[in-house]
Amino acid sequence: MNQAKKFAKVQPKDGDKVLHCGHHGQHPYHFFAAGDGTEALPVTFKRPDGTLGVATWMVLCNRCLITHGANPWKAAVADGTFVSDGPEITKDFQ
Known about the structure:
It is a single chain. The protein has 1 helix and 8 strands. The protein has one helix at 62-68; strands at 4-7, 17-20, 29-33, 43-46, 52-55, 57-61, 78-81, 90-93. The protein is globular and about 40 Å long.
């Protein structure tokens, strides 16, 4: 069975703010964007210290997606800045 990888239409851009589960190096990652599928829209959230933040993407490792799939907000432990110079997210097709 051949699997072809194709880049997703909506991609995070260098400098976009992301919420993440904190499990760096735990591939594969799953990216989620608020919006209608044609663009990622910002979402406001409250950090544990009470300050407000804005993120465009949520990034979860596979284990956190399985554990918190029904409520992914519970898996987000920190926010950061996405750093990349090209498309990263692929969709797998059979």
